[in-house]
């Protein structure tokens, strides 16, 4: 099987249901940014912390579900879709890592160790994916759980960055105004 088909040469692509749409459509943009987010997470692993790496791997698999969800405007019951359990998993991880961290008292600068700073970058791309998903939802129906997942994931990635920085001995820096 060859990787190229030529079907997209005129600026259109297929959704999961084989509907042809512009590559510039909001739906393609939404799952395209999720794909970018997934690839960026791949540049962070391994962090040197097995628990964080296992969770990032699970997130990468979750993001494939998000992409499939966004690529399918009319999902059947057997199709992959984001469910409440995906969101709850992220919340559980946030709660677990929050026990390891000092409570925040102010904003912090997105910096730190190599992996901590990369996780902050990943978080910003996750926020962009969420914005694209919200834009898509303003135009056509989408699974609201997928948007909720991206929102919660950005919080999770922020928490992961803080944990990695703390474990690496990097202090948090507050902005000056």
> From the helix content, strand content and strand pairing, which structural class follows?
mainly alpha
How confident overall, as mean pLDDT? 94
- Per the CATH scheme, the topology name is Hypothetical Protein Ta1238, Chain: A
Helix and strand succession?
A: EEHHHHH
Structure summary, number of beta strands: 2
Helix content: 55-70%
Give the N-to-C terminal Cα separation. Answer: 57 Å
| Biggest β-sheet description | 2 strands, antiparallel
CATH superfamily, by name, is Cobalamin adenosyltransferase-like
Radius of gyration: 18 Å
**Shape summary:** elongated
Walk me through the structure.
The chain is mainly alpha-helical. The protein has one domain (22-167): Hypothetical Protein Ta1238, Chain: A. Helix content is 59%, strand content 3%. The protein is built from five helices and two strands, in the order E-E-H-H-H-H-H. It has a two-stranded antiparallel sheet with strand order 1-2. A hairpin with a 5-residue loop joins strand 1 (12-14) and strand 2. The longest helix has 26 residues, at 114-139. The model has no long low-confidence stretch (mean pLDDT 94).
């Amino acid at each position: 099987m060859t990787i190229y088909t030529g079907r997209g040469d005129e600026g259109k692509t297929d959704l999961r249901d084989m509907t042809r749409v512009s590559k510039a459509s909001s739906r393609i943009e939404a799952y395209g940014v999720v794909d970018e987010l997934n690839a960026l997470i791949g540049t962070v692993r391994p962090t040197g912390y097995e628990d964080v790496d296992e969770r990032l791997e699970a997130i990468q698999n979750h993001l494939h579900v998000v992409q499939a969800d966004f690529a399918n405007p009319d999902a059947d019951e057997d199709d992959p879709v984001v469910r409440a359990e995906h969101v709850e998993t992220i919340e559980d991880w946030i709660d677990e890592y929050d026990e390891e961290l000092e409570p925040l008292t102010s904003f912090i600068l997105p910096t730190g160790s190599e992996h901590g700073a990369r996780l902050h970058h990943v978080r910003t791309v996750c926020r962009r994916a969420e914005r694209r998903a919200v834009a898509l939802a303003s135009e056509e129906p989408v699974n609201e759980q997928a948007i909720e997942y991206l929102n919660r994931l950005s919080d999770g990635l922020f928490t992961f960055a803080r944990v990695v920085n703390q474990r690496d001995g990097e202090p948090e820096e507050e902005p000056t105004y």
